[in-house]
User: Fold this.
Amino acid sequence: MMDRRGLLGVMLVATATRVAAAQPAWPDRPVRVVVPFPPGGSNDLVARLLCEALGEQTGQPWVVENRSGAGGNIGADAVAKAAPDGTTLLLTAPGPLTINNALFPSMPYVAARDLAPLALIATVPIVLMAGPELPARDVAGLIALAKARPGRISFGSSGNGTTNHLAGELFRSMAGVDIVHVPYRGAAPAMTDLLGGQIGMMFDNLPAVLPQVKEKRVRALAVAGARRAAALPDVPTLAEAGLPGFDVEAWFGLAGPAGLAPPLQMRVAGLVSKALADPELRAKLAAAGAEPGELTGEAFGTFLARERQMWSRVIEASGARAG
Assistant:
C-alpha cells in the first residue's frame, strides 16, 4: 500500500499535470516583433534573422513590424501599451530601453517600469565613417578638419537618442570639436545621405555598413568599442586613434509589456536562448558582424540598469537633448 508521502507526491504530480494542460500553448498564433526603426538597418537585420529561427522552432510565424519615429519611442510605446499576452514584443537598439528617458524632455512611457526585459539578442561594434566628400583619411585628420571648420561638418545618426547619436556627441566632447548632428529616421536614409555627401561623417553599427565599407564607398576611420572588430581587423579603435577611454558598443535586446506573466517571460527567454545556441544562426550573425547575446531575464535587467546609468552620465556631460 502507498504511504501518505507517496500519495502526496502522486497528487502533486497530477495537479501539476492538470495545471500545465489547462494553460494554452504558446505561441498558438503569430508573434508580432516590433522594430522601432525603418527596414534596412542593423536592428531590422538582427530581428529578421532571429524571427526566422524562432518561427522554425515554434511552428508559428514571428513577424517583424517596423514602427519608426521619435528615436524609437513610437514603436516602444506601442509595445509598452500592448496586451501582455506574448504576441507583441519589442526588439530594439539601446535607445528606447536605456537612453531616451534621459534624453527626451517628455516621454510616453518609462522603460524601467513599462517594459519587461527578456533577452540580450546580440552585440555589434559601432564604426566611425567618413563620406566620400570628406577629405579626412584618419581620426587625427578628421579632428584637425573639424577644428578648422567649426560648425561646418555634420554627422548623421539613425535617430535622436540612438547609440550612434550619442557616440557622435561623445566624440564631439572628447575631441573638442564643433560638429552638427543630423538625425534620421533610421540608419538606411542616413547612409544614403552620407554616400551622397549631404552629411560628412557618421557613426553606425557594423552589420549595416560592412558592405559599404568593403566596397570602399565610405571610409571606416575607427571602431568605437574597446577592441577592434573581427570583420575590420585593420581599423583601429578610437582609443588607439587618440581618444583614450572612448568605448561605445551597440546591442539589441528583446522586451515585452511589463504585465507579461513571469512564466511566459521565461518561455520567451528559453526559446531565444535555444535559437541563439544554434550554429546556423550564430554563423549568420557573425557574417553580419554581430555576436550573440547571453543574458536573459533578471541578468538582462541588471545589464539595462547599468546602461541607463552610463548613458545618463554621457547625456548630462554632453548636454545632448532631443525632442
In short: The beta strands are 31-35, 62-66, 88-92, 115-130, 154-157, 180-183, 201-205, 219-223, 249-257, 291-292. DSSP finds twelve helices and ten strands in the chain. The domain at 31-124+250-318 is CATH 3.40.190.150 (D-Maltodextrin-Binding Protein; domain 2).
